[in-house]
């Protein structure tokens, strides 16, 4: 078996590996949560095998894409096809909005909203919104379960290393925010 096919020629092995990786941040995810329009195969083309992804459109047509690279590239393709999908379909059940202290500058934009969210299937994310006089934007970061295994100080360190630099949370601000620690599941 060629190195390209690290998990053999059974497409389900690659799908299962992508699922396993998604579950590191989204432990509630099952194959039933995957995007139904996407499917995968390992097919013969001439004398070689190729990784293939399919996307089925609403009109019944579908696109076939040969995924270049090895098994790792195929797993990453499967992962990326479903990461956003499972996140937007995990509705927010509860949120904790931090009071934004004055004019907090994020790379030239003013911080407008910073909140942590709990979700229907599980997991916690942070949602950050910022803007300037002519435009704005937001980012949501789903947090790995491992961030919640240590202390609140450990969480803050892991969190600030995880999110992009300008989206980090000032440690003193987080520690002084009443109820945040408890909302995230840490004891007083």
Offer a concise description of the structure.
With 188 residues, the protein is α+β, with helices and mostly antiparallel strands. The chain folds into 2 domains: 11-88, no CATH class; 92-183, no CATH class. The protein has helices at residues 11-22, 71-88, 152-162, 171-176, 180-183; strands at 38-45, 48-56, 62-67, 92-97, 105-106, 109-119, 124-131, 136-142.
Architecture overview:
This protein has 188 residues and is of the alpha+beta class. It folds into two domains: 11-88, no CATH class; 92-183, no CATH class. The chain is 27% helix and 30% strand. It contains five helices and eight strands; from the N terminus they run H-E-E-E-H-E-E-E-E-E-H-H-H. The strands form two sheets. Strands 4, 5, 6, 7 and 8 form a five-stranded antiparallel β-sheet that branches. A hairpin with a 4-residue loop joins strand 7 and strand 8. Helix 1 (11-22) packs across helix 2. It starts with 10 loop residues before the first helix and ends in a 5-residue tail after the last helix. The mean pLDDT is 89.
């Amino acid at each position: 078996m060629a190195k390209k096919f690290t998990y053999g020629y059974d497409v389900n092995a690659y799908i299962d590996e992508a699922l396993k990786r998604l579950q590191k941040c989204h432990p509630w995810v099952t194959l039933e949560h995957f995007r139904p329009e996407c499917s995968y195969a390992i097919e013969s083309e001439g004398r070689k095998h190729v990784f293939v992804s399919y996307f089925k459109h609403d009109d019944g047509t579908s696109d076939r894409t040969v995924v270049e690279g090895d098994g790792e590239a195929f797993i990453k393709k499967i992962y990326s096809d479903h990461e956003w999908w499972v996140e937007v379909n995990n509705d927010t059940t509860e949120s904790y909005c931090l009071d934004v202290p004055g004019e907090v500058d994020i790379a030239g934009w003013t911080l407008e909203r910073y909140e942590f969210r709990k979700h229907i299937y599980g997991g916690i994310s942070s949602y950050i919104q910022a803007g300037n006089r002519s435009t704005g934007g937001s980012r949501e970061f789903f947090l790995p379960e491992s961030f919640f295994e240590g202390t609140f100080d450990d969480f803050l360190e892991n969190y600030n290393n995880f999110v992009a630099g300008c989206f980090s949370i000032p440690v003193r601000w987080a520690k002084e925010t009443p109820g945040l620690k408890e909302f995230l599941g840490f004891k007083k």
